[in-house]
Design brief:
Layout: E1 3-7, H1 11-20, E2 25-30, H2 33-42, E3 46-49, H3 55-62, E4 67-70, H4 74-86, E5 91-93, H5 105-110, E6 114-116, H6 125-134, E7 138-150, H7 165-173, E8 176-180, E9 183-187, E10 194-198, E11 202-208, H8 215-218, E12 223-230, H9 234-244, E13 252-254, E14 257-259, H10 261-273, E15 281-293, E16 296-307, H11 316-333, E17 341-343, H12 345-350, H13 352-363, E18 369-374
Parallel strand pairs: 1-2, 1-4, 2-3, 4-5, 5-6, 6-17, 7-12
Antiparallel strand pairs: 7-15, 8-9, 10-11, 11-12, 13-14, 15-16, 16-18
Helix pairs in contact: 1-11, 3-4, 11-13
Length: 380
């Protein structure tokens, strides 16, 4: 039986470990023993309590494993990826770090390693969809709008974070990079606010965030943008905090102590944004791809609406992120995808067999991507 090690047993890491455990020998590693104890109760998973910020620890852990899953927090992601590649292990990563993964491309090729990065829902599954169509048509525009929210709307933020508040705040503060008329354009996060209707949930607001990531390098498409979805009114509260300086990383002096406003804000927001145990939430995403296919104008719209799994107690964000990861991990483990180097998800999607395998894998787990194809005569 092939051996898989999951670095990080948080919300998504747990879902990944549970999904892979019936087919592979899975080891889960985390600094939090409570998380690991829960995993042991749920499935035959070997667990190790360890500090994953230590390079030498990671080197020892990943040795002798057929595949590594990187599910550590973003601030540990790049160093973890580099360490795993240096160890000569294949990896599928969902840590969504800020650094450029292509800096490690040559190293991965030298080590004969397949290193799939950004392999979640967005980035991740949206890239796979674009990668598939980009290989088969002249894409002119790409847009992804995506968000995860609690079912219950609670004043004032109407939001709960399925991951670290600091990582969410990073989304709200990092400038958003878009492609407009073939040129890179930088806009403020939270800008270009619009309202979008969804059958299952009603009206949501959408605003610019820096979600294109690897697509900025791998795709030559005239128009590309990514927007985050929230309940209407959420972004206004965030902008007030931002304008007041609550997200600043520059220390200020308070009673003789140097304190970063961001750290205080994250500490205060965490209890307000934390999902309650087994709290219902959902993930919604719409990917729109337009262009010319076989000499005709074509538009593909993919829609995802996924809810909390109340039976297995797995959040929708963990399902949609984690099962994209495990679908691709399966491709790598079974030798169906063998390309070496840094592999963004769009490279996976370009392969027709892999593309359909990923969709089918998720469909078996009740994650369904509905596709609407607009006839050429209806596209303006």
């Amino acid at each position: 039986m092939k051996r898989v090690i999951v670095l990080g047993a948080g919300m998504v890491g747990r879902a990944i470990a549970l999904d892979l455990a019936p087919r592979y020998a899975v080891t889960a590693v985390d600094v939090d023993e409570q998380r690991l104890a829960r995993l042991r109760e749920e499935a035959p998973i070997h667990t190790i309590t360890a500090d994953l910020s230590q390079v030498e620890t990671i080197k020892k852990l990943v040795a002798e494993h057929d595949l590594v899953i990187g599910a550590v927090p973003g601030f540990l992601g790049f160093q973890t990826l580099k360490t795993v590649i240096e160890s000569g292990r294949n990896i599928v990563d969902i840590s969504f770090f800020a650094e450029d993964p292509f800096e490690l491309d040559e190293l991965a090729k030298q080590k004969n390693v397949t290193a799939v990065v950004d392999c979640g829902v967005a980035p991740g599954m949206c890239n796979i969809l674009l990668g598939y169509h980009n290989a088969r048509m002249a894409v002119e525009s790409y847009e992804c709008v995506v968000g995860g929210m609690p079912v219950k709307r609670t004043w004032p933020y109407q939001y709960k974070a399925p991951f670290s508040p600091i990582d969410v705040i990073e989304e709200y503060t990092r400038p958003a990079r878009l492609i407009v008329e073939g040129k890179l354009v930088v806009r403020e996060a939270l800008s270009d606010l619009e309202y979008i209707e969804f059958d299952e949930i009603g009206t949501l607001e959408a605003f610019n965030t820096d979600g294109l990531r690897t697509l900025l390098k791998t795709m030559k498409i005239p128009t590309m943008r990514e927007k985050t979805l929230r309940y209407p009114g959420h972004s206004e509260y965030i902008r007030v905090l931002q304008e007041t300086g609550f997200f600043s990383k520059d220390p200020i002096e308070i009673n003789g102590a140097q304190i970063r406003p961001l750290d205080v804000t994250a500490k205060l927001l965490f209890p307000k944004w934390r999902l309650e145990p087994d709290e219902p939430e959902f993930t919604v995403m719409r990917v729109t791809i337009r262009g010319t296919e076989n000499g005709q104008r074509k538009e593909y719209i993919y829609e995802l609406f996924d809810r909390f799994d109340s039976e297995r107690k797995i959040s929708s964000m963990a399902r949609t992120t984690g099962y994209t990861c495990t679908a691709v991990a399966t491709l790598v483990l079974e030798g169906l995808f063998t390309q070496k180097g840094i592999i963004p998800p769009e490279y996976i999607g370009a392969d027709e067999q892999c593309f359909h395998a990923v969709l089918e894998y998720q469909k078996k787990r009740s994650i369904n991507y509905k596709v609407c194809i607009t006839p050429p005569a209806m596209i303006h």
